[in-house]
Amino acid sequence: MFNIVEKRFYFFAFSGVLISIGLIIMFISVSSNGTPFQLSIDFVGGSIYELQFSEAGADEENIRDTFARFGEESVVIQQLGDEENYRWSVRGNFESQETTQDILDALETLAPLDRDSLRIEQVSATVGQEVTRAAFVAVAVAALVITGFIVIAFRQVPKAVRYGLCAIAAMVHDVLIVMGVMSLMGMLLGWEVDALFLTAILTVVGFSVQDSIVMFDRIRENIPKHIGEPYETIVNRSIWETIHRSLATQLNAFFIMVAILLFGGETIKQFIAILFIGLLSGTYSSIFTAVPLLVAWEKGEIPLLEGDEAISGAEA
Amino acid sequence: MRRHWFWLVAIVCLTAFSVWVVLPEESKGFTVDLNNDAEPDWVEFSQGLDLVGGLRVLLEAELPSDAYTTDELRETSNSVSRRVNALGLSEATVQLQGSSRVLVELPGVTDPAQAIDTIQQTARLEFVDFGGLSANQVSQLIGQRILTDQQALIDIARAETLAEEEASEAEATAEATAEPGETETGTADLPVEQPRIPNPVTGQPFTTVLDGGMLDSAIATFQQVDWLIQFELNDEGAEIFGPFTASRVGSPLAIVLDGVVLSAPTIQSQLTTGGVITGNFTEDEAKQLALQLRSGALQIPLRVESAETVGATLGQESVERSIRAGIVGVIVVLTFMLVYYRLPGVAADLALLVFIALNLAAFMLIPITLTLPAITGFLISIGTAVDGNILIFERLKEELRDGADLDTALDSGFDRAWTSIRDSNLSTIIICGVLFLFGQTPGASIVSGFAVTLGLGLVLNLFTAVLVTRTFLYLIINYSRSPVTSRRWLLGA
Asked: What's residue B4's pLDDT?
């Protein structure tokens, strides 16, 4: 049986490097854009036009000119899919309905628009501010409720706080990984953080805690069964006993998500990709972060936190 | 064993009922109509705007909150509702949101721009006394924005809102990146550019004789060369209009819509019950205005806070893609469970099919509006639904490897895995609750669909992964006891 727990410092280092890279990317993003992510109109307000032309004629330049004629000087234009799809995404300011219609009519002169395949989303700055506020509340409430839940779930286990904190550490690990990836994708591909991204993050948190609980549940069960064995051995045994479950579960979630990525609707793919990375990180962190952290704590290896074996060792 | 037979019957009934609910209307045989509206209750899934296409628009009162009452907002929302109904859309909804907003959803609308226009325009019709003005002055005023005593009141209130908003927005953007263009975002559609013209003779606002609230009916008709609107007054209106027109025969009367003079005909004779409104309308304009007048003017002017327009074919494509992705994903999961866990896998697969049927029926019965995120939540819940089974089966294999006999292994597999399944599912269910609350914010409504379907899936999964799987597995094993005991690979062990 490969000893995962024994190699814990490699795994800590691996996670540490990934998270640090993510933090550096976010820092670079903050210093160049002012935010760690590209924020979508859900949070800052504005308009997204997904334009479907039915033939060639529109290009980035004349679309930009058209918007500029209506006072939209700084729109972000992206071509969606292949060039012969004639599908474009334009992000601009929040406009009145009349202006929006005028813009569409003007675009119609570049190439015929397929109005049945248009998608236009407009959010005022006020509504964006409300969503931002609600997002902060949601994150705060989720953190509070999940912490409370972990405390209750582990209330009968000795050292419940320790298990709870390790589960939270794994959860923070997953959130940081996802945020790092999102920041990177924002810089590389212009992925935007929207209400669905927050949904993905919180769902990842839910599943991450779910994974940690399954692991801890096994440790909790194994401790009385193997009295006399070192904690490290019990924990390592518990990991190996649950690893099939972790992998099988992850694999099934993976099947569904890959199916959506391959065949599913275009608008949901970014959400699924983020969720996928988060769940992957959640499975990884429950095995390679949460549980090894427990051992490290037990052995007094975490600065400022006293472990039990360290104390008994000092006495001997 | 009896217990398992009992559960099997219950599960089969429940699943059969679910499948029946989900089946298309024609194949049902009979219909259920609990609310007696002569429409069968469960005909099809209620599909969100992103799937059927259409328009969602959040309208906000354009007046400060102390300038109107809740009743006035409700009346405004009712007017919007009447206009929406007149557009002839079957699934349209109009909802009050909070104390200052109206959310309008128009699935399947073909001309969103015109729909917004119809809904949003205040359509405040006024008959304004132009007495004392020369013919020249009258003709100059046609098409102009004039100041009437009613408009004056609204303008004061509007100016207050504007000042308030500019102050708050300036505050908000002062610290952040203060882009000059940003302050006009919320107020871009306010027609503040032209000042309203007061009565040139007196310098005072014009006098409104009568407004659109006193109309009984309004129809667009085509007469000779022009589209015009024929209206009838209610009793209250007739009581004012009769004496007024009798005393002003020969003097001009302006017909003013939202402050703009449409026309200013001369009163030929006393009018009591009604008359016509002319103003060089096109057919569409005349019909739209007649509709607006019939539905009543909006007591409170509304402006668009957010709008989402989705083309119909776009949504349909999303549905098709999601269904295809779902089917492929489910087949792979079913195959995996079968190959990896063998006989227990069969039980898990049956349980998963029951799970899917129950979920779909629940979507229809509750009903849950299916949006793209909602379908995704459901698919994710399918992917994670087998987690419960996996926990149980892994435990079963372990117990068998440790030398336990089949029945003991089965029992402890289910018993021991239960706390893990319950506790672990609960954490995600809680998160779904938080997400659902987050989705109540108008701008983040997309989230609640995902939260509802994923949460519902996890709850149903507590039932299917444990009870349904157990029933199937015990029965399967009971009737294949001898092959199973001699061939352990059938249990995946």
From this structure: 85
Q: Which residues of A touch B379 (CB under 8 A)?
A: 256, 259-260
Could you say which of A45, A50, A265 has the minimum Cβ distance to residue B321?
A265
Q: CA B390, B7, B400 angle in degrees (round to 5)?
A: 35
Question: pLDDT category, B356, cuts 50, 70, 90?
Answer: very high
- Is the CATH code 3.40.50.300 the one for domain A8-38+126-315? no
List beta partners, residue A38.
A192
Higher pLDDT, B35 or B390: B390
- Give the count of Cβ contacts less than 8 A between chain A and B: 263
Question: Domain spans of chain A?
Answer: 8-38+126-315, 46-122
The residue that leads in pLDDT, A19 or B312, is A19
Which residues in A lie closer than 8 A to residue B451 (C-beta atoms)? 199
pLDDT of A217-259, one tens digit each? Answer: 888 888 888 888 888 889 998 998 888 888 888 899 999 999 9
Coil, strand or helix: which one is B274?
strand
Whether A97 sits inside 8 A of B376 (CB atoms) is no
Q: Residue A174 carries which DSSP code?
A: H
B314 interaction partners in chain A (CB closer than 8 Å): 50, 52, 116-119
How high is the ipTM of this complex? 0.89
Report the largest interatomic distance among the alpha carbons of chain B, rounded to a whole angstrom: 110
Give the chain B residue whose CA is nearest to the CA of A221.
B416
In contact, A34 and B177? CB cutoff 8 Å: yes
- Which A residues, 209 through 248, put their C-beta within 8 Å of a C-beta on chain B? 209-211, 213-214, 217-218, 221, 241-242, 244-245, 248
CB contact under 8 A, A260 and B181: no
CATH 3.30.70.260 corresponds to the domain A46-122: yes
Q: Do the Cβ atoms of A45 and B185 come within 8 Å?
A: yes
Residue B297 lies in a domain: no
How close is the nearest chain A Cα to the Cα of B159, in Å? 18
- Angstrom distance (rounded) from CA A117 to CA B77: 30
Q: How far apart are CA B42 and CA B62, in angstroms?
A: 39
Band (B456; pLDDT cuts 50, 70, 90): very high
**Mean of all residue pLDDT scores within chain B:** 82
Q: Which residues of B touch A248 (CB under 8 A)?
A: 336, 340, 386, 390, 394
Q: pLDDT digit string (tens) for A48-87? A: 998 888 888 888 888 999 999 988 888 889 888 788 888 8
Give CA separation, A176 vs A25, A70, A277, B478, in Å.
12, 41, 11, 49
**Chain mean pLDDT for chain A:** 87
Enclosing domain of residue B200 = 125-165+194-283
